[in-house]
Amino acid sequence: MRSLIAFATVAVLLSAATPAPSTSPPEPAHPAAVAEPLRRAAGFTLPQPQTVPDGGAVTFTAEFPGAMLYTWYRTDARGTTALPGGNTASYTFTASYPDNGATYSVRVFDATFVQHRSAEARLTVTPVAAVVTEPPHDASVRAYQNARFTVTAGGTAPHTYQWQRRDGSAWTTIPGATGPDHTFKTGPADDGAAFRVVVGNAYGPAVTSAEATLDVVSGGGSLDPVARASLEWGVNEIYQGGNPANTGCNYFSAGTQETFAGRQGDVRIVHRMPDGSAQGVSDATKCIPSTGSQLNQRVLFTGGAGTANAVTGAATIRWTGAFTANAYSGMVTWYLRDPVLTVAEDGTGTLTATAGGMAASRTDPGTKEPVPPRTVTVATFDRVLLATDGVQISPRFSGVDYFPLADGVRSTASAIPAAVKAAQPDWGAWPESFVDFQYETQLSSYWHTSGLPADTDKPPFDLTVRFDSAPDVKDVPVILANPAAGAAAPYVEGRDLTVTADIDGVADLRWERSTSANGPWTAIAGETGETLTIPAITSAWNGVYVRIVAVNADGRAVSTALRLQTAPYAAPTFTRQPADLAAISGNRAVVDFDVTGNPAIDASSIVLERSDDAGATWRPWAGAESAPSQITIPSVPLDANGARGRIVAVNVEGARSVSGTFGFRVFRGTGRPQLVVIPSAPIDPATETRLTVVAAGFHVPDWASATETYSLDLGLFDTTSWQPGRTGHRNWIATSPDTSGGQIYHGWMATTGGTFTAGIRVPAGALAPGKTYGVGAFLRLTDISTWQDTFTNRSLDAWTQVWPAPAADGAQTISVEVVDAPGEFIWSIDGDRAVNLGQAVFQDTYLQATGDIAPITVTDTRAGGPAWAVSGQISDFSGGLSGRYLGWSPVVITPGAGAVAGAPVEPGIGGGLGLTESATLADAAGGHGRGTASVGAGLDLRLPLTTPPGSYTATLTVTALS
Questions:
Q1: Domain of 768?
Q2: FRET label pair with 424: which of 185, 208, 280, 370, CA 20 to 30 Å apart?
């Protein structure tokens, strides 16, 4: 037998191979390489064609005297394949309709190892009409639970199914019940109903099954009192991300107070450990993952009271107490108080609670405002089946839609875009009242599908309810304070370092070390107290993590891992010197620098000093606010223009370092939105130019509605493209890389008090000779529900021309030197040349808009005090509107140089010429004293009531004569 098996293997290889050319004499062909047909002879039986019905048994037979091995084959449109188990003289199987038309053959090895092949025998399978082989059976279920009827069909597939129902004498078709199973949720009215199914196929008449009767059991049981129920819940996956450093997580706290509490009354915060046990947490461990990166945190309510009927499924349980969910490490907090679970007999129900919390102020994001408490539905569910000891509930989410409120009116548009619904079949939302509440906390789309990456984390976790008990919670040691070093990092090498933790209660302690925050960890020999001491620390400890482990009978608590950083001693050194500062008077300014050293620089000892005598003497800048790499001046005075500054830094050991000096350039503030562009000289369009924009007065409003927020746009524009009063857009020529694509967000503007400094790079060739340009700023309103932007609010429009700068424009400082007298006469227009009069207001017989020109500074140091005068004249407004409608009331803001205000000029709406005729703003008679004056004027524009709507601009030409 071994030689037969060996030869059979070789025969297969020979039949599959292609002979290769040979240069040696050929050997005689082996007889096994020849496949001869089976011939009809005495004692030989060949496979014969057969016809059977679908589902009938088939046997093909081929007898060959002296045969050593049979192999049966099947051939159809896909090819020929050997049949498993087909190694005897006959092959038997049950035919199905897909076998129709297939052929069957056999190959035989005889005693001399010659292979013989039979002819193909065709199988014909005839289809069979549908029959019911197993009808549906009677069923009995409790009301509101699922009933299931099943039928088994015979005959040729595929089959069709249609279930029917009879409540009296007539049968009715059940829509959608077209499969071999029919499952549905029952109710008391289904008791006694009969069900049957009509089964058919394409090969005969349909057949109807025998009927089955449904018995629905209603009522029974009793509402048993519940006195010690527990409710355990983790909200959703968004509240499960941990952090080994115990910071930056969304953590739970017992109660509604701001400070963390691991337990309050009947509410406790626990972490589920890898072994399934529940463990208490403290403020020092609230963010430390229980496994991997997951917190597995849960809120546990205990002591719930109410009633439950495990037979009917009805239950009502109330808990007392609250927990707070602290999003963004407590920046946004919300709480649920006194939850109530209600389950009806039909398995539907709700979890309701009182919700409240805190949200960032609409007017001051740095402060929090309370979100008014209200009752909300936290979860809805159906198909709940109570057990005798409790229930596990899966809240609804998938397929639940949400339509947001806008000013108290429910939107008809879903907050979930149609494209997102199409892309995510499991899209959904939490209950409407709960999402409404979360829109007020500003967590908004965290509670419904939005198309963002966090969507998979938004569905609610299951609720676990026990009727008469609570899960055991291990009272492991409480870590009151995580490890903290006695010095600031990096620690000076060669000096002793102490690291201290605080553990509450009796516990066995040990300190451990690792090269990774994730371990593995090894014990530090001899360190078994709350303080770890490392004598004369070396660089070998640099990058090492240390932690403390506390163990008691209930288990162990592990602290956060403190990463040690060491470095040699280094004296304080300025690695980035402060640069010259440009600011607008009365506004915030920031001095940036970098100073390093080891031990660390004491931020409270960093001082800004000022010199008004070119560095001869220095004094601290009163009111300056220090930080490690930045000093903030809350309000820069105008008299700081031309002053020098320097930074003095001192480390914790008293070593002192002084920065290089820098200059202050202070522009007079207007009290309105203001842009100052440096340099003020004309831009050469053939070369790349970097502009510095200093801005103030941009107090960006906050939310216009629950979904609309303001920001500020900044850019360099062609004057034909944008000017104050026109609708804003993003078609700027250049913008600042210090912005987000030209956008400065409300939060930053609120933090800086409406000020900013930004650079704009103007590429060579971007500007065309002969055209005018300017730096402009305006408001953008973004609807975060649709991410659509609009630019219609004109309240913060600002503009400063940058190239070219015509003399009458007022954007450049204009100097006039009187050569026939010693001294000089200089005048300049302060700040932004653009004057935005806002929207004209109806005043009975005319439309009125008012404003102020930018102040004009006049300095006269000439001997003898020659007479001088500054006058102004307006052009016509754009759109053909006459300039005579504009008048002014001159005023001397700061007396000096003999300045006297000019006479008021009334608007010409009654027939006068207004400012279309040159009028004196201020003048001085000869013989006045030397000095500096600041003059200005209030503008009064009065337009006819028939003036067409639109935005109008004109040019006020200011002329100085002496």
A1: 674-805
A2: 185
